[in-house]
């Protein structure tokens, strides 16, 4: 059953603040709360099958997560396309898989994006690395200038 969210955009912050740079997704959502972004915010340790139904309520979905990839500029913001790729070795699902499930099960395909913020340290410790702090600040600047404005105008 589809119900309306408060806003037209949902943002998933994925991560774990107890594992250093893996907490970048949650820290980014903490920042977004201070911006009054006209978006619904969801904290996740990992994406689950149930999230495929949740995104039925939104026109736009943004996934924010730390990445081990060398992004070149410390982060990337790119379109997220549905993919049925999944792994039997983990219970966590990729954003692309969640979109595939939403499309396959509910015949719905929202606009979707991934903000990947490059991290460097992943041990059991609270606090992000100095390099990750630089990267999240770059991502915040980009998001304020390019994404939040668009979401306010469309919500």
UniProtKB/TrEMBL annotation:
GO terms for molecular function: endopeptidase activity; enzyme activator activity. The keyword Signal does not apply. Keywords: Hydrolase, Protease. GO terms for biological process: protein processing. NCBIfam families: hydrog_prot. This is Hydrogenase maturation protease. It comes from Flavivirga rizhaonensis.
């Amino acid at each position: 059953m589809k119900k309306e969210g408060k806003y037209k955009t949902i943002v998933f912050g994925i991560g774990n603040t107890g594992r250093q740079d893996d907490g970048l997704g949650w820290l980014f959502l903490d920042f977004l709360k201070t911006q009054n972004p006209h978006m619904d915010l969801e904290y996740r340790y990992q994406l689950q099958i149930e999230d495929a139904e949740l995104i039925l309520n939104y026109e736009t979905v943004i996934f924010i997560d730390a990445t081990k990839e060398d992004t070149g500029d410390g982060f990337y913001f790119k379109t997220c396309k549905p993919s049925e790729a999944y792994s039997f070795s983990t219970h966590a699902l990729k954003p692309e898989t969640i979109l595939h499930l939403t499309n396959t099960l509910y015949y719905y395909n929202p606009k979707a994006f991934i903000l990947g913020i490059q991290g460097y340290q992943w041990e059991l410790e609270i606090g992000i690395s100095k390099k990750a702090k630089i990267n999240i600040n770059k991502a915040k600047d980009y998001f304020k200038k390019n994404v939040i404005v668009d979401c306010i105008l469309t919500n």
